[in-house]
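quick one: flavin-adenine dinucleotide bound model?
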Amino acid sequence: MNPVDSSHKRKHFVIVGNGGAGISAAKAACSAGYQGIIHMVSDIEGPTFNPMLSPYYLSGEIVYERCFPFGKEFYEKNSIQCHFGSPVEAIDTQQQKVYVSGGGMIPYDDCLIATGASPLLPKVPGIQNSYNVFTLRTAEQMIRLKKALMGAKNAVILGASLIGIKLAEVLMRKGIRVILVELTKQVLPFFAHPQLAPIIHEHLLNKGVDLRLSWALEGLEEKKGRVYLHFQEDQIVKTDLVLICIGIKPNLEFLKGTQIEVDRGIIVDDHMQTNINHVYAAGDVSQGTNQLTGKKEMMGLWGNACYQGRTAGYNVAGMNVSYPGYLPQYVNHFFGITFIHLGDINPQGGEIEILKQFEPSEGIYSLLVFDKGVLVGANLINNLKEAGRLKTAILRKQTKEGGLSRYFFYPSGKDFNLIKPVFSPSFMLAKKDSFYN
Ligand SMILES: Cc1cc2nc3c(=O)[nH]c(=O)nc-3n(C[C@H](O)[C@H](O)[C@H](O)COP(=O)(O)OP(=O)(O)OC[C@H]3O[C@@H](n4cnc5c(N)ncnc54)[C@H](O)[C@@H]3O)c2cc1C
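yep, here:
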């Protein structure tokens, strides 16, 4: 770790984590003219990695360097003090100090926790140390998986959600036979409405995906370089590699012993401040406001992480910036279709009404969810052009009577404000740089 000179009068802003949230905070603080010293602390070496671009690297659509969207130059150009390869092990919020492995200490005036999240593993003995089990979050994991794919003939992917389905496509394009296993009884359990999920299910089957729904992993053995996965009712699948995509857990272990309020993630207000003065949190490690429900929720989205980081950075630099929260929005392109989830498609209670416009001949499917007449969520297949205005309609709590359904179901209607879509889906980001600047 670089020695830290705390003798002089300049302030210290310590950013823990060099992902999208961390670097966005540093960029915002610099652009707002922060006069102190910015420290960036990361457990891994190298510049910011964007995990959402890894499927595109694995498929060969982008080169390795594209996964590091901010490059190496940013740190030097902005006189950032980098403490890379130095995992933070503890924070003392009373003394305002961050401790890193190897005994290093950095004092802070303000601290941002932006340590992101790690992939969840099923609770099955042996899975953690299995050579043939893969997860995807860091550049190192991406490279390890890329090498393994070269020799693999078949694979099992656990989790038929957005990342699992995308990776199934990537692997199958390489000629690898894929079994896609899902614990629940439908694909995309958190994102697709039960009335729309069968359409995606059918599409995946038509593309040759071997789907196993309601399958629970119970055990794992390795024999002669192959993995034997045990599922319920003595079903055994033999495979070359296992890819786990069942969710994430925030990286918070180093907070033990602090008074920082944690639910699943670190609770933040709309300034990204935690309950402890001068401690902020942003990105996948945090639980910020869901703009639709007002509840504190984890989002797991690159755009949200960057907005939250930016908000924290501006505030540390002395501005007064609030972030109203994020509307859940997931846009993914897999097996030739674009799937979009907006807002809340499974609202609890209330009077729920579903409006559907399915046009199988054109491959376009739209499902809107109303709660007491107000639009709260939507699922779209191959209907990207409507996503921006539906997002706006959800945020404006537009009702069916307010002209929404008429517009939506009769696209020539003119009674709805056209707002530019604000999506940055990964498949578009993989192609352009503009989002980062
Ligand atoms: C395969 C994949 C596909 C995805 N696709 C999409 C998508 O299509 N759209 C979308 O919006 N989002 C997508 N995401 C999610 C998106 O990548 C994350 O939401 C985003 O990267 C979160 O940024 P972050 O800065 O909060 O966390 P991270 O990117 O995880 O960065 C956190 C950093 O903190 C470091 N760190 C952790 N612990 C410590 C410690 N103790 N000390 C020091 N440093 C530490 C980590 O090494 C890491 O560098 C995808 C994610 C994956 C894995």
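The two ends are 30 Å apart (CA to CA).
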